[in-house]
Amino acid sequence: MTTASSHALIRLVERNPSISGAEIASELVPPPQFSHASFDSYRPDADFDSQQAALDRLNQFAGAWRAAQRPGGFFSRKRPARIELPGVYLDGGFGVGKTHLLASLWHVAHGPKYFGTFIEYTALVGALGYAQAVELLRGAKLICIDEFELDDPGDTMLMTRFLGELMASGTRVAATSNTPPNALGEGRFAAADFLREIQALSSNFETLRIDGLDYRRRDTEGRSTTLDSEADVAAKAEALAARGHGVSLDAFDDLIAHLATVHPSKYVKLLDGVEFIALSGVHELSDQNAALRLVAFIDRVYDAEVPIIASGLALDEVFDDDMMAGGYRKKYLRAMSRMIALTTGELPPHD
């Protein structure tokens, strides 16, 4: 699609990145939107006492954890404070600040520590193999898991076993979760589902319920913006590249096909040096595997805050009716809201 006159346009489909276990682990940090999240910057809604209660309890969790790490020894006058349970689960609907609180806990914890979505941890295991992934994270003081998936029994069992090994060696875990497939009222509380699915570990988790209103209700409003033609996308990409920006330019079909050849753990490496993504010929998807790969890719694009320029069908309309009525509806809704934000230039606040 590029020409000899192109200003160093990047083609994502020509990138075949490699990534080491250490590099994957180094990416397990809060996304840029939460790079400065703190307990002090969390603003509990005065109408919902559980938000302040969760904030207070997490502060205690962090304080006790830090105290437990201070040297004291057998003959110290005061025994270190103990955390009753090694895991904490933040249970709440959409938009009540669970991810903000999770990132805040990560920031105050001692390392080694890791923060990622459920998908990122399963990608780590897939890329390295189970034993090597366990060994890589062994010794972690804290592992934060955002959006613990409950819709794939195999992945849930894998992560339960994975966390069980790490928690047995002293690692503490904090998590939030998504609701199961086709759950009535997709913003409902999911603690019972979470604890049931990880039953082997459920006794290790304290549940903190967080009530509240979704402060990003507007995320699924509006529509992803598009340009009129492939030529318009190419011209916009050329203009941005000419001004010194790192711009990728690919056909939508080519990108979708290429994502199938790249392990999801490497999607973040596709974005190295990319400040804008240009896509031409966007159309509706009918293959669920392709759609889920796009969801995983958009998550990485969103975390990196890389705007998208596109032509064809609006990106938030790429998932067909069968997909939107199926078990991955919530994932698609999240991706849709993120693609709207990425094409309109307004990155919404997170949960």
TrEMBL record:
Matches recorded under InterPro entries: ATPase_AFG1-like, P-loop_NTPase
Keyword Nucleotide-binding on entry: yes
Keyword Hydrolase: no
GO BP: cell division
Record Pfam families: AFG1_ATPase
Assigned keywords, A-Z: ATP-binding, Cell cycle, Cell division, Nucleotide-binding
UniProt protein name: Cell division protein ZapE
Species whose genome carries this gene: Agromyces allii
